[in-house]
């Protein structure tokens, strides 16, 4: 990437997003969106600086179009957007489908589906040569849940990741000839705050199901994302990549 090229990671204050920001590579300019965790966002900036990454936190809620558009305007001031990592996501909370509420569905759809679509739209508007851009790359953070359907936990969440996979396939083909690559990474069970509501018994049962016998680390997902965002993946588009310890 050139000096003024920018990578944007949505949801970069914690978990997988923060690892992507921190490991983005010496000299890389990275902007990241966060919703409310200001202290964590500042900690992420410091951790990134220690790795030679210049990270800029931007408070922007991807479930709110006006907020997201303000976030993209802030990114434009930093340089040219060349990579978008659509990472911000929520589970909507654990619930069997028979108990799911309209409010849960609304939240998970707005953040995981509408948010990812609108961020992808803004990225394509900036990257496409049809609009004066110079190409780029989008990596969607989906989930292994899109394959399992996550029964007894969060079918609502799993379905949003299915939507993200479908968007990846369609958008990759829509913009391939415009020099924009679109891929998805499907993490398995990764050690982040997203699992904070699980009991020790649930953790143990979950870990037993993983062929490699352990949860993944955010850095293990970040490395795949950063490879997909690199020139090494120049002929890779429309792919759905599992990072899941064999799950
Ligand atoms: P996490 O630790 O809970 O972090 C979520 C991040 O997303 C935070 O930075 C949060 O910002 C941000 N965020 C949430 N809602 C947002 C919104 N409306 N606007 C802007 N930012 C928002 O989650 P994680 O485990 O790293 O998950 C990251 C992605 O990986 C998600 O898409 C998740 O579905 C996917 N994933 C995770 C796992 C796993 O096992 N961890 C497995 C498969 C897929 P604040 O800090 O401000 O709240």
TrEMBL record:
Keywords: Oxidoreductase. InterPro entries: NAD(P)-bd_dom_sf, SDR_fam. The keyword Signal does not apply. The keyword Nucleotide-binding does not apply. One of its GO terms (molecular function) is oxidoreductase activity. Coiled coil: none annotated. SUPFAM superfamilies: NAD(P)-binding Rossmann-fold domains (SSF51735). Signal peptide: none annotated. Belongs to the short-chain dehydrogenases/reductases (SDR) family. This is SDR family oxidoreductase.
């Amino acid at each position: 990437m050139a000096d003024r090229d920018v990578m944007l990671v949505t949801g970069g204050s914690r978990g997988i997003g923060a690892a992507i920001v921190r490991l983005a590579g010496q000299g890389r300019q990275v902007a990241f969106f966060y919703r409310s965790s200001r202290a964590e966002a500042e900690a992420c900036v410091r951790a990134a600086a220690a790795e030679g990454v210049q990270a800029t936190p931007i408070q922007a809620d991807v479930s709110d179009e006006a907020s997201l558009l303000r976030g993209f305007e802030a990114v434009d001031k930093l340089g040219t957007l060349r990579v978008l990592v659509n990472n911000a996501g929520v589970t909507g909370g654990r619930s069997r489908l028979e108990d799911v509420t309209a409010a849960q569905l609304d939240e998970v759809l707005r953040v995981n589906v509408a948010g990812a679509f609108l961020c992808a739209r803004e990225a394509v508007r900036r990257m496409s040569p049809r609009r004066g851009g110079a190409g780029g790359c989008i990596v969607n953070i989906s989930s292994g849940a899109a394959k399992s359907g996550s029964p007894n936990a969060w079918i609502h969440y799993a379905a949003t990741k299915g939507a993200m996979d479908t968007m990846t396939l369609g958008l990759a083909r829509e913009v391939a000839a415009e020099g924009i690559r679109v891929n998805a990474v499907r993490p398995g069970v990764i050690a982040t705050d997203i699992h904070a509501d699980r009991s020790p018994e649930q953790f143990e049962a979950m870990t037993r199901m993983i062929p490699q016998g352990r949860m993944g680390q955010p850095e293990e997902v970040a490395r795949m994302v950063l490879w997909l965002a690199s020139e090494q993946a120049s002929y890779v588009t429309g792919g759905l990549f599992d990072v899941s310890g064999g799950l």
